[in-house]
Amino acid sequence: MALKCAMLVAGAVLLIGAISEYFVYGKTTWFSILLFPAVAGISSFVFVSFFIQQFIIAKIRLIYKTIRSLKKDSQDLNLNFSRDLLKEVNREVIDWADDQRKEIEVLKEKENFRREFIGNLAHEIKTPIFAIQGYILTLLEGGMNDPRINKKFLEKASRSTDRMVAMIEDLDSISQLESGKLKLYQEEFDVVALAQDIIDSLEMRAKEHNVTLKFNKKYDKPILVHADPNRISQVLSNLLVNSINYAKPEGGETEIRFFDIDEDILIEVADNGIGIDQKDIPRIFERFFRVDKHRSRHTGGSGLGLSICKHIINAHGYTMDVRSTKGIGTTFLFPLKKVG
């Protein structure tokens, strides 16, 4: 810009000099004759160049402001013309396009998750409904008249109904946990005593699968935590039932461990079962996600247990983690607030 102004001033001085020479001396030299069109051409070029530049800058400013206004995290629409404007606009366009690409990828992932969730939900609900339908049709076609058959099929229909009700209740619990509507009733309690009660309640089920439920060591003193005992009981129960269902064919064992870590108590539920593939671990807490679909269909459950566990621990202000090795075993761990 400074160079163009200097060229304009120099051209104007030369042009004035040539005109002055004509009026003073009544004549002009060949140099002056040639100088006049040269100065006029240079001046025209400078003026045209200047206005073209201003036009381009105005258009770039409009593009730049439009891009900046589309970016939600920016309110600064001022341009700094001391920088390379085209380079700046190019960078903004690339950044904006990258943000849009990432947003599209997230939306695609959500859409895929939605489709998979709806498909799994339809399958899980369809299974008990079709079972109930089959039992009722059998009874209507003559089974009702046979006391042995009608009682057996009514009991089966009742179990399928219970499974469907449990699934709906689990979905409702997850929905309330995610929305923050499910209230926690936190209090001080002995988590060791709570875990022992759950182990005792699952003893018969564990024996059927040749699985031993135990602590990693003898805990002589209570371990007090501040949490919702009913919800933590639900978490521990789901984790222990999972360890039973996914034990190796020859059986195994599951340990509950407690570790004192500063202001928290870290709880681990570790088994030596079939384990989880590394590729499946990131999805292990998704609703209805099953590592082994064929095996899990026969173990019962709604497929929502781990998702509920994760949301309950999140509602307490913590997170649940998992580490696992295929063929060796799985460990779920989460902290709770320590008392004292």
Describe the structure.
The protein is of the alpha+beta class and 340 residues long. The chain has three domains: 2-71; 114-179, Orthogonal Bundle (Helix Hairpins); 187-338, Heat Shock Protein 90 (2-Layer Sandwich). 61% of the residues lie in helices and 14% in strands. The chain is built from nine helices and seven strands, in the order H-H-H-H-E-H-H-E-E-H-E-E-H-H-E-E. Strands 1, 2, 3, 4, 5, 6 and 7 form a seven-stranded mixed β-sheet that branches. Strand 4 (252-261) and strand 5 form a beta hairpin. Helix 1 runs antiparallel to helix 2 and helix 2 (30-70) runs parallel beside helix 3 (85-140).
Average pLDDT across residues?
A: 75
What is the highest CATH level, the class of the largest domain? Alpha Beta
First and last CA, distance:
73 Å
Counting helices, strands and paired strands, the structural category is alpha+beta
Whole-number total of structural domains: 3
Order of helices and strands: HHHHEHHEEHEEHHEE
User: Strand share of the residues?
Assistant: 5-15%
Which ranges are low-confidence, i.e. pLDDT below 50, for 5 or more consecutive residues? Answer: 294-298
Classified in CATH, the superfamily of the largest domain is: Histidine kinase-like ATPase, C-terminal domain
Global geometry: elongated
Protein name: histidine kinase
Transmembrane segments: 30-52
GO cellular component, one term: plasma membrane
Pfam families: HATPase_c (PF02518), HisKA (PF00512)
SSE layout and pairing:
Blueprint (H helix, E strand, L loop, with lengths): L1 H24 L4 H41 L14 H56 L6 H33 L7 E4 H11 L1 H6 L2 E5 L8 E4 L1 H17 L6 E10 L2 E8 L21 H7 L5 H11 L5 E5 L3 E10 L2
Parallel strand pairs: 2-4
Antiparallel strand pairs: 1-3, 3-7, 4-5, 5-7, 6-7
Keywords: Kinase, Membrane, Phosphoprotein, Transferase, Transmembrane, Transmembrane helix, Two-component regulatory system
Protein name: histidine kinase
InterPro entries: BphY/WalK/GraS-like, HATPase_C_sf, HATPase_dom, His_kinase_dom, HisK_dim/P_dom, HisK_dim/P_sf, Sig_transdc_His_kin-like_C
